[in-house]
Amino acid sequence: MRTILFRLIGVLEIAGGFYGVAAMLRRLLPFGAHDSLVALLGLALYGFVLAAGIQLVAGSEHGVRLSRWAQLLQLPLIALPVFSYGLHCGAFVNVFATLQAAPRLGLDWHFGSQGFVLAVAGPSVSRLGINLLALLSWLVLRLR
Predict the structure, then answer these.
(1) What DSSP state is assigned to residue 72?
(2) CA-CA distance, 77 to 88, in Å (whole number)?
(3) C-alpha to C-alpha distances, 113 to 45, 61, 73, 116, nearest whole angstrom
């Protein structure tokens, strides 16, 4: 069972990492100042997740350690007016709380996607959350 779950996590990391690398390369081509820096950082993150997924599928113990870090990078969802960060590779199940006059909980999910947000500014409606799929994957990778 452990091997099947590790391979499933690895496949999601490979697919999301590859898709993310392609998206960041496309975003990097019209070389501008700010967007290119974010695209280079995204390219490095997606390359890291892709390499971790490849090593995890190969059955490497080093791949398990790298994949744990890759899942931790995908865990937080921060969207504040002064700072935003979010990363997902392959799939996500986000549980978040909007921070308004009347806070509310929300659930968002998608399979077969990638996304990277790093910005000094954010949305007008703040939200904080976690990626439950990344948390579950990290816990599965902790299995011995």
Answers:
(1) H
(2) 10
(3) 15, 26, 16, 11
Compute the distance between CA of residue 137 and CA of residue 12 in angstroms, rounded to an integer: 10
Residue 144 confidence (pLDDT): 64
Contact 102, 117 (CB under 8 A): no
Q: What are phi and psi of 34, to 5 degrees?
A: -70, -50
Contact, 128 vs 139, CB < 8 A?
no
Per the CB < 8 A criterion, the answer to whether 47 and 116 are in contact is: no
Instruction: Give Cα 16 distance to the centre of its chain.
Output: 9
Q: Please provide the DSSP assignment of 15-53 as one string.
A: HHHHHHHHHHHHHHSS--HHHHHHHHHHHHHHHHHHHHH
Helix H or strand E encompassing 85: strand 84-99
The total of other beta-carbon atoms located within 10 Å of residue 88's CB is 25
Tell me the whole-structure pTM to 2 decimals: 0.88
- The pLDDT assigned to 116 comes to 85
Helices (H), 29-143: 33-57, 61-73, 132-141
- The residues of the chain scoring below 50 in pLDDT are none
How far apart CA 44 and CA 89 sit, in angstroms, is 13
